[in-house]
């Protein structure tokens, strides 16, 4: 059972993700962040619940919608913001940007711009954990879209037959860009796929941080005991479009509103209030998150950029 | 004591064995590399010595093999993946081109992807369209990758040892027709640095720049031509990326004529890059335009007489040299 302090840390993490994303969106509109990115707003409970089930020395692999995973794994939001703004103080020195943030020291093996491509890498990291006998676990985030790539099949099967210490966490936000899960899968639950690999599969409410935490914790324990992978499907929803180019023509306003009413932060807030946490405590955390993100923006704005000569030296080890 | 001779396949196996003995982070992963010993027998006996933990047979999942190698490398391992035929590299191209090659750079130089992907290339075995490809040129176009294509047992062993110790992803191109070729390989340990070419035969009249199986054919052609009084120098680049430009340019500056010989289809292949290099950096030294002898523009045909025609043969190289000096 989680204590109140732990729950408050979770809540704060969710707030940080939400504020980070809102701020990033604002900076994008102001032209200070460019290209494209994929906002995690609405899905905060998944990354937070899952990463809280890990030990600090465990690993994650992330996705193109990876800011939330990164923060939940304990990343420094200043270095993240600097990365989004293309600065030399960013996690990737401004060379990776939103879709390639990695925090190797913190156990985040990186986000990826190719849907599904991190799943084999997660399996490989888990293989290394097994060979190194380091008792660590890999948590692999991917979306419903990735679950239909060949890489998913190859990697989940490989991990299953080798009984690797990895947890496959499918963030089912109901759309692969615009393509609905209903049309992309001939089965109702993506977790059902687990049966075909001989591993457990569970579907959880991805808008409930505690459900995600419990399911992941159980899967992580299994993995750590050497009992192999688990496939978790967390049902969630992105409140914003797929990327910045999304015109939002494939979802109804009613659907979006219905899901926004199930906001994972609001829901957890209600839970905490119900547990007797004073409202003031939650307000303080909101303020703290706000300040942290503001400080991250200041840090990023004041940071220098890499030169092309410096970049060139990083192509080869 | 006469120098020991072993085959190209044995030389590769020795390199794997020595590096695995030396470094516990080195392991092998691929299809049928364990009990079966690899489709071409390269890994025979390694399972017995190193066990299933370090000689890892996988399901038929090329993307997972390459991806798993990358993931393990991110945690400090040095995996050597075997892709059964070079044509199958297409099945893991995303992992190699988008992940292995870019991860270090995209992550701000903080990651190391020390993997080797070994794979047999080339036609001449009657294996037709899906098992005879020479696709090495594709990978030479990718910053972040290194590409090695040895021609002799000696080079294969020394270069593979360096490739395994290298902190970058290395594509190690083996040639099926070389696996059984024997050559001198000393008992004592040695390594050959990546990115260093070698003059395999000294000559005055023209330079052949080549790699892999075509080195052998070029050397045979040079012997024939020497009887006609044409003295051919053969430069084996050995590593395609990074390319040893100096060994090529130095030779061309001496002979003033260059023929680039390579097995992939002529159009757009790596040989064109060598030709461009010579033209850009040694133009004033040339007595004739750089000539290219590449493969034919068609998928590998099954019929043996036709298959023979798609890759340069000794007689084709001889004819090209005669033309170049005439």
Automatic annotation (TrEMBL), chain A:
GO terms for biological process: pyruvate decarboxylation to acetyl-CoA. Pfam families: E1_dh (PF00676). It comes from the Bacteria. Its cofactor is thiamine diphosphate. Keywords: Oxidoreductase, Pyruvate, Thiamine pyrophosphate. It catalyses: N(6)-[(R)-lipoyl]-L-lysyl-[protein] + pyruvate + H(+) = N(6)-[(R)-S(8)-acetyldihydrolipoyl]-L-lysyl-[protein] + CO2. GO terms for molecular function: pyruvate dehydrogenase (acetyl-transferring) activity. Its EC number is 1.2.4.1. Residues 14-308 form the Dehydrogenase E1 component domain. NCBIfam families: PDH_E1_alph_y (TIGR03182). Heterodimer of an alpha and a beta chain. The pyruvate dehydrogenase complex catalyzes the overall conversion of pyruvate to acetyl-CoA and CO(2). This is Pyruvate dehydrogenase E1 component subunit alpha. The lineage of its organism: Bacteria, Pseudomonadati, Atribacterota, Atribacteria, Atribacterales.
From TrEMBL, chain B:
Keywords: Oxidoreductase, Thiamine pyrophosphate. One of its GO terms (molecular function) is oxidoreductase activity. Pfam families: Transket_pyr, Transketolase_C. Its cofactor is thiamine diphosphate. CDD domains: TPP_PYR_E1-PDHc-beta_like. InterPro entries: THDP-binding, Transketo_C/PFOR_II, Transketolase-like_Pyr-bd, Transketolase_C. Residues 6-181 form the Transketolase-like pyrimidine-binding domain. Coiled coil: none annotated. It comes from the Bacteria. This is Alpha-ketoacid dehydrogenase subunit beta. It comes from Candidatus Caldatribacterium californiense. The lineage of its organism: Bacteria, Pseudomonadati, Atribacterota, Atribacteria, Atribacterales.
